[in-house]
Design a protein that fits this description.
five-stranded mixed β-sheet, six-stranded mixed β-sheet, alpha/beta, Signal recognition particle alu RNA binding heterodimer, srp9/1, Rossmann fold, single chain
């Protein structure tokens, strides 16, 4: 089989190619510069020494110019050779003296008047000038080499000669997608919205035939951990197109114009790889509203935003580039960024409900050995308020605990312990605590649990523990039966009473109070203040009170009075309830001191002695009174 003819390489091209390959090795370049510098100085010193030795043929003495002049005054010099500023004097006894005279000072007549034979060596001067030139060239080469090395080091990741204005976006391979829609759960509506983007990237001619214009940008809005980045990669994986990922903070630099240059380079690269998706995470870092804070303006950020707006306007109907951005602060974005034609569509990703949490747990449970008694449904009900990232972390913590305990499969107790680790942190059994403090912690936590289980509308207590976790000495865990999006006033009053149950139990049992209720008081005060200022659940009426310094002193005093009244009312309710159930408070607390942890069913059995639905509870009228 004949081989295709190859173009011959000229010697010059092979030399330059070899030189470029050598320059890519930073260590070799640095070592070469060091060697060159050492050789330059070594050659200079050696040349000077050898030049002097060749001229004299005798041992020399480096002396001050004053000593040479003194010898001349005594008529003890036989010959003098001047080489620039270098004075080489030969004495009558054959000794040779080397000295340096002042620049510009002529000593020819001085030595000649004192009987010395004077000669001027122009070749030596030129030699010194040559050596000086070599040294200067060597220093310049060292500086230039240092700058080249620093520039190449700063560009080690991108491979460009000048990296400052180049895009730092990471490209993920479209030929081997690692994330698909089946890997994203709990965001059904968001997937439905983004299915249209996938269809456009796959079949753009179908939309063009109908005269439809696909959105140029999609803004994903939601709290952290809800899967904004994951669903963006799933869109690219389903469509089978290139995916460029970059953070908004990577556009903002100290030098003005760098961010705009990176935006231009990013979209240039995207247009060269169409169809593709450009994902900008945390776009609020560069897309904040312009002119909102003129005293702290950032010209670099505003120029970067302007360039981003121009680039998004520059898409034509045949450019299949979709920009997907994510943020949890849509309120701070510039209105020009959100107008139709740029980010036409906003997709909300909220924390999942119980069905979404179940789907997410099932996705992340794939590939993990679960015991037969593990109930994913129960786990989904216990994790209200968890995001997708929290649920993934929960299952990972369960797997780590199972491996640490040498289990063959992940048990239900491993998963329940992982819930507590995610919520409150790991157990701190190594903390040394006195028996008296342990009793206070036990009565405090049981006080919370009894009040919460005795007031209607409160969430179910699932676990009471007197073991320290994180910064807390004990913990009482609640789990709602179902997802709630509205709270009645009576339910908020019940939550306040439950928070004050620990402080009330301390006063009833020990006749004194401790600092352990600090976090409870903080939470209760925040709830009461929202009831007064935001929810209109106080005698102040159905008004919004913004405590931003603009309200009058009289109104602020009335707000503080109502907040204090709600907290005091909740404390009295908890105290009255615990005094009525003091015997059970003592029994359950003593049992908790022994076993350290009580689950919800055991608490109900000891507290009510019967089914919770028929148990003795405080009425709504008594709670409100």
């Amino acid at each position: 089989m004949d081989r295709p003819p190859q173009s011959p390489k000229t010697p010059h091209s092979s030399i330059w190619q070899r030189l470029r390959e050598l320059l890519r090795n930073r260590r070799l370049v640095v070592a070469t510069l060091i060697v060159v510098g050492a050789l330059v100085f070594g050659v200079a010193i050696t040349a000077i020494s050898s030049h002097v030795a060749e001229r004299t043929g005798a041992p020399t003495h480096n002396v001050a110019i004053s000593q040479v002049l003194s010898l001349a005054d005594q008529h003890q010099l036989r010959a003098v050779t001047l080489q620039g500023n270098l004075v080489q004097a030969t004495a009558s006894n054959g000794q040779v003296y080397i000295a340096t005279k002042e620049d510009g000072q002529s000593l020819t007549n001085y030595f000649r008047d004192r009987g010395a034979s004077v000669s001027v060596d122009e070749q030596g001067g030129s030699t010194s000038q040559t050596l000086q030139m070599i040294i200067e060239i060597g220093m310049v080469l060292l500086v230039v080499g240092f700058l080249v090395v620093m520039m190449r080091r700063g560009n080690a990741s991108s491979g460009q000669a000048v990296p400052f204005g180049r895009s730092r976006a990471k490209r993920f391979s479209e030929s081997r997608p690692t994330v698909l829609f089946q890997d994203v759960a709990g965001v059904v509506e968001a997937k439905q919205e983004l299915e249209e983007i996938v269809q456009f990237l796959k079949y753009p001619e179908k939309f063009a035939r109908m005269g439809a214009r696909i959105p140029k940008g999609v803004l994903l809005v939601g709290p952290p951990g809800t899967g904004k980045t994951l669903i963006s990669r799933a869109v690219a994986g389903e469509a089978g197109v290139a995916f460029f990922s970059v953070s908004g903070s990577e556009f903002v630099e100290m030098f003005v114009g760098v961010g705009a240059s990176r935006v231009r380079d990013l979209f240039k690269e995207a247009k060269e790889n169409t169809p593709c998706i450009v994902f900008i995470d945390e776009i609020d870092a560069v897309g904040r509203q312009r002119g909102a804070m003129p005293t702290t303006g950032n010209d670099e950020r505003e120029q970067t935003l302007n360039q981003l707006l121009v680039e998004m306007d520059g898409f034509d109907g045949h450019t299949n580039v979709i920009v997907i951005a994510a943020t949890n602060r849509p309120d701070v974005l510039d209105p020009a960024l959100l107008r139709p034609g740029r980010f036409d569509r906003q997709v909300m990703l909220d924390k999942p409900d119980v069905a979404g949490r179940l789907a997410i747990l099932q996705v992340h449970a794939t590939g993990k050995p679960l015991a037969e008694d593990v109930s994913i449904e129960r786990l989904a009900r216990q994790t209200t308020g968890f995001s997708g990232a929290d649920l993934a972390n929960l299952l990972n913590e369960g797997a780590l605990l199972a491996a640490r305990r040498d289990h063959e499969a992940i048990q239900q107790e491993d998963l329940e312990e992982s819930v507590l680790r995610v919520v409150a942190g790991p157990e701190r059994k190594s903390r040394i605590i006195t028996d008296a403090e342990k009793a206070i912690v036990a009565y405090h936590e049981v006080g919370h649990a009894i009040v919460m289980r005795s007031i209607p509308g409160c969430d179910t207590v699932t676990k009471v523990s007197a073991v320290a976790r994180g910064m807390a000495l004990g913990i009482t865990v609640q789990a709602p039966v179902e997802d709630r999006y509205l709270m009645r006033r009576s339910e908020l009053l019940g939550r306040l009473a439950g928070l004050m149950g620990g402080r009330a139990a301390e006063e009833i049992m020990f006749g004194d109070i401790t600092t352990g209720a600090a976090q409870d008081i903080k939470q209760a005060t925040n709830i009461a203040r929202k009831m007064v200022c935001e929810f209109g659940m106080s005698p102040l009426g159905n008004v919004l009170i913004q405590e931003d310094g603009t309200i009058s002193a009289q109104l602020a005093a009335r707000v503080d009075t109502e907040v204090s009244h709600l907290v005091d009312q909740a404390y009295e309710t908890a105290k009255r309830l615990l005094e009525a159930k003091k015997e059970r408070l003592v029994a359950i607390s003593e049992h908790l001191i022994e076993v350290e942890t009580i689950d919800g069913s055991e608490l109900d059995e000891m507290l009510f002695g019967e089914a919770p639905d028929t148990a003795e509870r405080i009425t709504l009228e008594e709670l409100a009174g």
